[in-house]
Automatic annotation (TrEMBL):
Family matches, as Pfam families: Xan_ur_permease
Subcellular location per the Swiss-Prot or TrEMBL entry: Cell membrane
Keyword tags: Cell membrane, Membrane, Transmembrane, Transmembrane helix, Transport
TM ranges: 33-51, 57-75, 87-106, 112-131, 138-159, 171-191, 198-219, 288-309, 321-343, 349-367, 379-397, 409-431
Protein name, per record: Solute carrier family 23 protein
InterPro entries: NCS2, Xan_ur_permease
Family: Belongs to the nucleobase:cation symporter-2 (NCS2) (TC 2.A.40) family.
Membrane topology, from the record: Multi-pass membrane protein
Amino acid sequence: MTATRTTPAGHAPDAVDAPVPLRRLVPLSAQHVLAMIAAPVSTVFLVAGTLRLPPAATASLLSAVLLLCGAGALLQSLGVWRIGGRLPFVMLPGGAATALFLQIAQDHGAPTAAGAVFLAASLLLAVLPLYARVVRLFPPLVMGVTVLLIGIAMIRVAARLVTGPDGTGEPRAVLLAALTVAATVAAYVLLTGVWRQTSVLIGMAAGTLVAVTTGLGAVTPAAGSGFALPAFLPFGTPRFDVVASLPLLVFSLTTLAEITGQTVLNSETVGRTPAPERDVPRVARADALVSLAGGLFGTSLMVTSAENIGIGRLTGVRSRFVTAGAGALLIALGLATPVSRALAGIPEAVVGGSALVVYAVIAVMGVEMLRRADLSGTGTGSLTAALALTAGLLPLLSPDLYAGFPGWARTILGSGVVAGTLTAVLLTALLNRFRSPTAPPGSRDAD
């Protein structure tokens, strides 16, 4: 049993450590599940559609992701030793991490992508003793460039789910994807609260309904019933290629900055004094360990999410036992194979339409991060962002640009995310040495 914390005055338990009666715990936990369920479902369908997985493999992957989301929520909420932040967190398959996983799988094969997950999670564990130094390499400018490039790259991948691998889309597939996007937008605009947060899932349901009723698409659920565990090593024995894994390796380091922000935000939300030097390594360890488990079941990196923080603010319930309850519900869903097998039959065009929305939002998140950086004309931030985005967009706009380079160079330079992120990190470090001595203390140039 976890010890109850007390406030500085020593009179009452912190709200984050307060138990919740079962009659309230179940509906409150279900709210958190509804708010985050769209992310794992849409992510699995994007992976399955991109890698052309059969319905049975899609169902198995969805079961694995739900189980890992549940285990991650339990670990982060309850904590074991120095693993888990003991904060009301849930865990999701990272959208950006999934994008990079798919990039590696398409370029080097799914076994290499699975190996990249192991390498990236291991790297995250290895650098935690150097947390304070590593996190300084990824200020908002670098994070913004990275996330924006990931969003742009994955919009192209999501479009292929609609058009097919040859890039020529059938009108009915394009129409079905457009209707899915329209339903998602309508749900987001018209609904409120937790239902608004499930707008992607509602859009997928609406798109599937349109496909079935109009003949624009077909639903083909996987066979099976009852309860079952997901497939172990679904892509075969992982292949470890450090150069091919660079996109995920670089991304795993950037997550330290995101984890820091989310941990501080969550601590403040539940009324706990933020202690990033203590809590961030704990949160990151849980992320890394669940990601290592995910590598065994074909998933990309699993990341702690702040999506549930808004629900905590809305309901006023700050207890970490509520998100622990959400974790238990997710595990139950992951074991219920009829649910995952039924969902596995959603048409690809519907998945593609939902994915377009998800990854467009990721691109906008990158823009928002860049807004927090100093991009004024008097500093070096604007030049750094411009050159980093150029390095990242060149491989997307001119795929054969580095065709004559050695294989290792093509892997690094040909990945827009890696090229852009490394350019941003190097230029930030280099140009800051030449910053103006009169730069305002709060600007990026004075950091």
